Amino acid sequence: MQSVERARSNEKCSWASSHEFFWIKRRKRRVAEINQIDWLSKLLNKSKKLLVLTGAGVSTGSGIPDFRSANGIYDRIKGVHYSGEEALSIDFLRREPELFYRNFIEHLYFPEAEPSFVHRFIARLESPDRQVTVLTQNIDGLHQKAGSSRVVELHGSALRFRTRDGLKFDYSEVEVAQNAICYKGEQLRPDIVLYGEALDTDAINSAICALQEADTLLVLGTSLRVYPVAALPQYFMGETKILVNKEATPLDGNFDLVIHENIEAVLKKLGIS
Fold this sequence. Notes:
Layout (H helix, E strand, L loop, with lengths): L8 H4 L23 H11 L2 E6 L18 H5 L6 H4 L2 H6 L1 H11 L9 H8 L6 E6 L5 H5 L4 E3 L2 E7 L5 E3 L4 E2 L4 E3 L2 E2 L1 E4 L8 H13 L2 E5 L19 E5 L12 E3 L3 H6 L5
Parallel strand pairs: 1-2, 1-10, 2-3, 10-11, 11-12
Antiparallel strand pairs: 4-5, 4-9, 6-7, 7-8
């Protein structure tokens, strides 16, 4: 799979150089259409440069739990003296490495998972007349597996591992034990962003560049509560911002079209050419 070119983003599309756009007031066009599904279909069919921002709700159809719901990942990995968020922090990895790896392997590592209808739908949106870029908070690699060719992994990948020196290995190259992941005897860590760590600069710059180039932003399956990713839609300079999420988010008012419904159910109603 071909990932988004990152080199071009370092100069003209960097987070810092785009700061001025943060303050531009965009004209709000709240959709008052009775049939939101028809309107969504028209907006997506019209788009030539579509940007899709995805969260955990996109992968629940693949059997991967989300983080914040009842019996979600945070509930499953929290302990008596620490929260689920803390269990996925860099400090916890350093302090309790065996417990961290056991939680990771049991609750975050899904190499056999298959793309959901939503992943495949997004991949099918690509066409000679429509460029589709995916910004994903997910670490499961399912967008690439579904066939999406332009994917920016904002939080890294649970299917990739790295040494202390930064050498990276695919999941097929490593040995996975109950509480350790190794390559030729050397302990590796997942190539994911933990709490207490900064996002990858190249990934952020690629995201900002894509936000400035797209004509339509489609946000799927995210609570928009985790920063800095939750701030990314404010950098969008295109025509229309769309949010489809089962629950309300703190940023619903910033979107032109908001649909609170099951994502798969919504997308199955669309007639996309």
